[in-house]
Amino acid sequence: MSLRIDDIAGEVLGRAGDARRFLIAVAGPPGAGKSTMADNLAAALKARGESAEVLPMDGFHMDNAILIERGLLARKGIPETFDVRGFLDIIHAVRAADQEVLVPVFDRSRELAIASARPIDPKDRFIIVEGNYLLFTQGKWAELDGVFDFSIMLAPPIEVLEERLWARWRGYNLDEEAASAKVYGNDLPNGRLILENRRPADVTLEIALA
């Protein structure tokens, strides 16, 4: 039987038992469908009477001014272009579930993170964290090992990622040259890095479930 989002939600609920706070990782390369998967899983949990919130890792992008200064603007999205320490601090604060935690959200249309843009309430039982490097085995990202109670890895074939990434950047009105630079100079190399350096997940999928 093929998996559906309700199947994943049921497995999550079974794992969670009576836990007051349960952290779920939705990881994968750029263009894998992480945001869609996270939102769909949150909706499925809420439909079962649970409280759930999505925490996107993209809110921890370094500001473009810092990336320009460091010569990394063209590689925005690689592991070194995120505030990893800040992200780890937020994850540990969210894990504690003893106070409201305000988290940043990334506005892709403006290519900037908006601080304190989403509240995580201590009463939110399920926190679905989505991002590229949640299961990454290199650098400080490896400190996330053991933090999540359940993990989902989205790992579409490279050909599928390529098609989705082209659609993404054309959707932001980039010309062919600029879109090509994003896809082949940054996003696909990042995708391969993520797929080749990941911890095992509880569930690995090629598509984001609906």
From TrEMBL:
It comes from the Bacteria. SUPFAM superfamilies: P-loop containing nucleoside triphosphate hydrolases. Keywords: Hydrolase. Transmembrane segments: none annotated. GO terms for molecular function: hydrolase activity. Pfam families: MeaB. InterPro entries: P-loop_NTPase. This is Nucleoside triphosphate hydrolase.
